Every structure is written in structure tokens, then in C-alpha cells.
TrEMBL record, chains A, B:
Coiled coil: none annotated. Its EC number is 3.1.26.3. Mg(2+) binds at E44, D116, E119. HAMAP family: RNase_III. This is Ribonuclease 3. The gene is rnc. It catalyses: Endonucleolytic cleavage to 5'-phosphomonoester. It is found in: Cytoplasm. Keywords: Cytoplasm, Endonuclease, Hydrolase, Magnesium, Metal-binding, mRNA processing, Nuclease, RNA-binding, rRNA processing, rRNA-binding, tRNA processing. It comes from Altererythrobacter arenosus.
Amino acid sequence: MSGISQDTRDWLAQLGVIPQDDRLWLAALTHGSYEADRNYERLEFLGDRVLGLSIAEWLYAENNAPEGKLSQRLNALVSGATCARVARSIGLPDHIRLGKQAREDGARDSDNILGDVMEALLGAHFLDHGFEPTRDLVRRLWADVFAGDLGERKHPKSALQEWAAGNRRKPPEYELVARDGPDHAARFTVRVSVLNVGSAEATASNKQEAEKLAAEAFMEQFG
Amino acid sequence: MSGISQDTRDWLAQLGVIPQDDRLWLAALTHGSYEADRNYERLEFLGDRVLGLSIAEWLYAENNAPEGKLSQRLNALVSGATCARVARSIGLPDHIRLGKQAREDGARDSDNILGDVMEALLGAHFLDHGFEPTRDLVRRLWADVFAGDLGERKHPKSALQEWAAGNRRKPPEYELVARDGPDHAARFTVRVSVLNVGSAEATASNKQEAEKLAAEAFMEQFG
């Protein structure tokens, strides 16, 4: 089993997550089609309960609603669809390790898989850092949906992906075109292209951010 | 709302529980028939998820079973029937605050109510002491059922209660007949009687224990 890619490590750092036990995080990001032995299923089982308690505690503390109302809110906030929405909002789809066939079948955009991996990541965080830091992470990641803002604010890369699909174009392709500056202050320039449409570039202090800004720039120009 | 009775406080201490916020524990032990405003329902909502995560973590750590097996085991260990069984094994029924009608309707022996109060206590403990100490409490209380020992080892008071009902007798009555010694080393003597059958006495350093021993003595003599 290979290690966590630098890309994925940067992305986790942006979420405020520092992996201690890399194997947990690799497993959480691995679909059974990529590796049958060490995939996200057991961590998803655990993460499902981590999420449930995190949200239950939050609801309990925030309002004095009767039990029936709390259960109803909780069910909506932990549903597979909500987990998938949160997963997309943080750019999770890029980091899932999928087998070739699953990739071609569109697994990267499956609500079921995105929701499960989202929960598996919470399971990994719980084992790695304990309950309270994980509860705090849930509160950051779920802040928008908890506030009832179930609007359509998509991650720029998801928005571009959907735009391309909706316009019967090939999926966008990201390419690192330059890496400048010393290691402690590196600058990454990424170009995103959609075949037969055009391309856009952006620069940032990490690749994730540069991709996000490039997607935004592309959408401004062509979207 | 009155405070926690000394009886209930002693019982909690025997379980290793020291209430910080008394109101939580009173609410956890209060059925809606006793007090509509501050009953166990919201704490049960929370405790349900505390129990779920505690057992999920335990199962995850104990064995390498696939997710389906873990879910199956978890569902059995957190079911209302299992919660009620654990509640009986620790003598919880005596400590539930019920309205008169509910008492007469046998609420004290209802699996639903016992299971809910058991979960509400875990919710109170979680708010009072945090996740890890509560998880440790679950591991103590669920040790027998987790080990697959779903046998019929009942609390002596429950066993006597059931024996009386099964023999068409009035329920056993417990009476404190003596309290000796200085406060820091008090000795409690309890007599348990079943009308038209007989009585038995026992002495211990707290009333709970004396009642338990008296019930045992009664069953040895008459059961």
C-alpha cells in the first residue's frame, strides 16, 4: 500500500487535519474497488456513530426542542445526501482511491460513496485524535448545513465538473504548470482545460488552492 | 423539583458515578408521568448516540470483522431489550420517578421505559463527564452482554420481585429497621417482607446493598 499523496496531505491540512496514523486515512479514502482488504467500510461503520453523537450533542445544546424534533433534525443532518453534500463542499471527490472500473462508472460522483467516505474520514479522525477534536471538526464542516443553509454553494471544482457534464463537454483537466520559489514559500500554478472550450490558470501557495482558483477563473470566463 | 435522594446517590456511587449537575440526573430518572417538563426524553435522544458510539468503538477495536457483522452485533447490543436487561442488572427500576398511574400500570417493569432511562443516564453522564469516562462506564455495565453472556443473572431484587409476581403474592416491601454506628461508618439493616410468606433481614454499609442482601436471604429461605 502506497502512502498518502502530498496532494491529499495538503488538502487534509487545509481542513485542519494532521494525520497521525497514515494507514487509517488511506483506508478511509479507499474504495473496495481499489483495495479489497483495507477499504473504508469498517471506518464508515464507526464514523457513522461519531457523526451521530456529534450532531446529537450539538442539537441538544443549541435548542430546547422536544425529542421528536431533535430526531427529525438529526436524521436530515446525518443522511447520506447531506454527507455527500458536505463531501463535495470540501473537495473530497478528488481524493478517493477508486479502481479503474469504478472510476469509469462515475463512482467519484456517487452520493453513496461520497457519504460513506465522509463518514469514514470522521471515523479515522476519531481513532487518531479522540472524540472532542472530531466533534469540533464536524461542527466546522457541517456549519452551513446545520445553519439550515442547504443552498447550492458548490466547491468551484464541482461546479466546473457539473458545468462541463451539463454542456456535453469532456471533464476538466488540471495540470501543474509551474512550481516556483523556495520550499518554505512555494507557489503553485495550475492550468485547467476543457477540451474544445478553453483553459484558465491560477497561482496559490498550494496545489489545491490553485486548482480551486483556476476553476473559478474558468467559470468566470466560460461558464 | 426535589433533589436526588440519598438512596439514589448511594446507588450511583456504587456504579462509580458522581453526579456533578444534579438536575441532569434527576431528569434522566424522571418519566413524563411524574414531571412533564423535565423528563428523560431529550437525554435519551443523546444517550442513544453515546451508547452507539461506545459500542461501535468497542466492536471496531475488539475484532476485525467486516462491516456487516459489526452492524449486526451493534444492533443487538444497543436494542431496547438489551438496555432494559442492563438496567435490571444494576437495579435501576427502583430509582425511576414515575407518576402514580404509571406506577400502577407496571411502568417500572416496562422494557421500553427501562431501556430509555438506561440511555438517558448515559446521556447525563456524557454531559456531566465527557465521552471517554462515559464510554468506560458503558464497558463496565455492558461487559456481560458484550461477552455474549446474555444469561439470566438477575439482580436479587428483580429476582424476588418476579418470584412474588409468579407466585401471586403481593410485591416485596423493604423497610429500613436500623441505622447504627457513626456517620462515617454507618451500618444499615433492611427487612424485606412478602405478605403471607415471611421476611428476611440483612445489614450492610449502605441501604442499597442491605436491600440486595436481604432479597438474596429471602430467596434462599423461601424462593
